[in-house]
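Researcher: We plan to redesign the surface later, but first we want a full-length starting point. Tokens attached.
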């Protein structure tokens, strides 16, 4: 069976609808369904000069993607959309797209979901606490510990903490957090990518990984003991390593993934190397979810200047991961 992928079109005032049009320009070995407002998607395709044809399909998500055509599971926006102008009246529509995608996977209609970017601020404006896709999906799926992993051609970078103010990071890095993140990272590298024994490098929190306690003691108190526990549990974990040297190419080559302690420790390096073509994967969920490596880019909506590369790569990766799981399930049944 070809993987069935549902793509949520994201914040309607941003570039989500624009980049969804690019899905009609790629031949995926999968059935791709976009979830969003059909009229909006058609309008935006016209505004950016895309030749992609969006056509309504049933919510079952069984329509194959033909060249130049993208099936749409139509979910209407609540209020009129103006490109580049946020409207809180459509914030719940954005969340409904995520809920419908999850329901579609739970009902067996889809094998994975891909998410176009959403605008956190406008969702919070309506009184819904929202720090990002990762946390929202984890809450909906009752997943205790979601892990954000950014994937590019040459590296995988996971985060111990995600969307926290920098002053809150040190207090958040506690033994239980690191134990769980390392276990999830190793398990999903095996489950999704088929890496039998993943090699993981763990960054220190402080410059030079604490310089033997002279530049901070979190490495000695928390990070090194967590690494030792992971090693005792059979994981191939190294560190703590200095974040300013682990991303040198020859050092990266020895590892399957790097665990950074906070958002801006690891992601600037990856995005510098691969922005527009990196993929955000949420680990620790019972579903496959990939996403883009960028935001809503309100200023680019309906201008034809939005780069669709990350959404295309996110969709390709979702297809590959879903196929990997299906193949391993077939192999287990054959045994």
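Model: Full-length starting sequence:
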């Amino acid at each position: 069976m070809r993987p069935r992928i549902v793509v949520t079109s994201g914040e309607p005032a941003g570039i989500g609808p624009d980049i969804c049009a690019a899905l009609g320009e790629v031949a995926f070995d999968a059935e791709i369904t976009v979830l969003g407002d059909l009229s909006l998607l058609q309008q935006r395709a016209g505004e950016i000069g895309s030749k992609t044809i969006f056509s309504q399909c049933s919510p079952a998500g069984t329509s194959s993607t033909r060249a130049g055509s993208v099936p749409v599971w139509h979910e209407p926006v609540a209020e009129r959309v103006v490109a580049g102008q946020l409207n809180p009246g459509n914030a719940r529509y954005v969340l409904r797209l995520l809920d419908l995608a999850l329901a579609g996977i739970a009902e067996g209609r889809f094998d994975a979901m891909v998410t176009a970017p959403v605008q956190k601020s406008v969702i919070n404006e309506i009184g819904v606490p929202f720090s990002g896709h990762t946390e929202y999906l984890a809450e909906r799926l009752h997943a205790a510990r979601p892990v954000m992993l950014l994937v590019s051609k040459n590296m995988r970078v996971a985060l111990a903490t995600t969307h926290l103010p920098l002053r809150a990071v040190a207090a958040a890095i506690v033994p239980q957090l690191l134990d769980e993140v390392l276990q999830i990272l190793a398990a999903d590298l095996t489950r999704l990518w088929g890496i039998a024994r993943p090699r993981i490098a763990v960054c220190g929190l402080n410059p030079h990984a604490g310089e033997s306690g002279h530049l901070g003691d979190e490495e000695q108190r928390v990070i090194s003991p967590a690494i030792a526990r992971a090693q005792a549990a059979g994981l191939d974990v190294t560190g703590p390593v200095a974040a300013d040297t682990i991303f040198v190419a020859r050092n990266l080559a020895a590892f399957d993934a790097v665990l950074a302690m906070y958002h801006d420790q690891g992601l600037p390096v990856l995005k510098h190397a691969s922005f527009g073509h990196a993929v955000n994967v949420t680990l620790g969920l019972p579903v496959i979810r990939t996403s883009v490596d960028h935001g809503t880019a309100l200023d680019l909506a309906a201008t034809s200047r939005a780069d669709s590369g990350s959404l295309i790569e996110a969709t390709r990766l979702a297809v590959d991961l879903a196929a990997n799981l299906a193949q391993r399930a077939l192999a287990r049944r054959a045994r």
